[in-house]
Design brief:
By secondary structure, this protein is mainly alpha-helical. The chain has a 3-stranded antiparallel beta sheet with strand order 1-2-3, with no helix packed on it. The protein contains 20 helices and 3 strands. It has helices at 2-5, 9-17, 21-33, 38-57, 70-81, 84-102, 125-131, 137-157, 167-178, 184-203, 232-240, 247-262, 266-270, 301-313, 336-349, 359-372, 377-384, 389-392, 400-407, 411-415; strands spanning 277-278, 283-286, 295-298. It is flat and about 85 Å long. Strand 2 and strand 3 (295-298) form a beta hairpin.
Length: 416
């Protein structure tokens, strides 16, 4: 394995001569299986040889002795480089990653899953969300985010857990969030999470009074904004910004086409599997939509060609059935965050000015095209997977031609 990355025989021999040479070679194989680049493998291996020699000089004689020498090794290397925290992460990363491979039960510092917010002060809350309220995993992630912000706020002001909560503290937290430049809908969602949390804590006897009513959220008027769509010419600029010669570009081009052609959400694109594409019937299935139903679309020739190009020349070999994979190691299915980040990257690269650029920009653009083509809002809502017709009502604001007719005095006929 080492000869694959180190051409000179003496280099591979020096690595194997290290007292943890076998473990380093095992780790190099682990990296190769997960698609890490040659440059990354070389850099990690060289750092691990230095770590092995350092630990040996400090008296380590068995693999189990290695964790005790990680901190000292990192400190000395960082002091020599004089590059601060970034260098510390760069040194510690390969060492601790190898230890997770060769030492069962070893946990990386700063990389383990963070404890759920208020897991000790208010135990069982997240189980309550899943079991009693039946929330989807995506919704529970949102609860976790908002409560983590609230927990950090309490730590910052020195409040010792929920027992010290008061209406004044709750109002100050909401005011701080509202003044942080967040959208009103985001602040409102956080307030809703906080209310549910406070009611649960009171029900469990952890709060003497139900403080949920003390949380006042900002008023967010329905249909107060307009969809953040872009023109079809700008879509062409976004697609033209993709370098389709690379594996990453082939993937991104297919993702962008799916977003703008079918108005899919980022999570729906990330969840696509090979089984969802029916090549014989030219159909694309979208199971498990947000509204709780499934949809099947005709597979566009342009989208189909982009998918074939990626699957044949860009997708890494894998037994996993997901369509889209990460471009960087370790290889694995792309997340919804990666899909949205992909759309954001190319919107900015193309110089498109739009509020909150991301996957929903292309989703709104798809709907704008349907509105301009004269489709009814019921058909549009069904097409893009809206649960309620009210969700589609916002697009009435961008139905330019019907609105122009209303302004010209022919409103009754238009609205009939």
């Amino acid at each position: 394995m080492l000869e694959t990355y180190f051409v000179r025989p003496q280099t591979a021999g020096r690595i194997r001569a290290c007292w943890i040479g076998a473990e380093i070679e095992r780790y190099a194989s682990w990296l190769a299986e997960r698609g890490y680049s040659t440059r990354t493998v070389r850099r990690h291996v060289q750092a691990l040889v230095a770590f092995g020699e350092f630990a040996g000089r400090r008296g380590a004689s068995a693999v189990a002795d290695l964790p005790a020498h990680v901190d000292d090794f990192v400190a000395i290397r960082v002091a020599a480089w004089r590059r601060g925290r970034a260098a510390a992460a760069e040194v510690r990363g390969p060492v601790e990653q190898m230890l997770t491979v060769i030492l069962p039960g070893f946990e990386r510092t700063g990389r383990t899953d963070r404890e759920l917010p208020f897991s000790r002060a208010v135990p069982g809350f997240f189980e309550y969300l899943a079991d009693e309220r039946g929330l989807r995993p995506e919704s529970i992630v949102s609860y976790r985010h908002h409560l983590a912000c609230f927990e950090a706020y309490l730590d910052r002001i020195g409040a010792d857990g929920p027992a010290e909560l008061s209406p004044a503290i709750l109002s100050a937290f909401v005011a701080e969030r509202a003044g942080a430049g967040l959208a009103k809908t985001t602040v409102r969602s956080g307030c809703g999470v906080l209310r549910v949390f406070l009611r649960y804590a009171h029900r469990q006897g952890l709060l003497a009074a139900d403080l949920s009513k003390a949380v006042e959220w900002p008023t967010a008027y329905q249909l107060s904004g307009i969809p953040r769509s872009i023109s079809w010419a700008e879509v062409g600029r976004v697609l033209g910004a993709v370098d389709r010669r690379t594996s990453c570009g082939k993937r991104d081009y297919a993702i962008l086409l799916l977003l703008v052609t079918y108005g899919l959400r980022a999570r729906e694109v990330a969840a696509l599997t090979l089984d969802d594409i029916d090549w014989r019937r030219d159909r694309l299935a979208i199971p498990g939509r947000k509204a709780g139903h499934s949809t099947a679309f005709p597979l566009s020739a342009v989208v189909g060609e982009a998918l074939v190009d990626y699957l044949r020349h860009g997708r890494p070999p894998s037994s996993d059935r997901h369509v889209f994979f990460r471009a960087l190691a370790p290889a694995g299915p792309a997340s919804r965050v990666a899909v949205s980040a992909c759309a954001r990257h190319y919107l900015l690269k193309a110089g498109i000015q739009v509020p909150r650029p991301g996957s929903h920009t292309l989703r709104h653009t798809c709907v704008q095209r349907l509105v301009d083509a004269g489709f009814g809002f019921k058909a549009i809502g069904d097409f893009i997977g809206h649960r309620s017709p009210a969700s589609t009502a916002i697009y009435a604001k961008v139905a330019i031609e019907p609105l122009r007719q209303v302004a010209l005095g022919d409103g009754e006929q238009v609205l009939a």
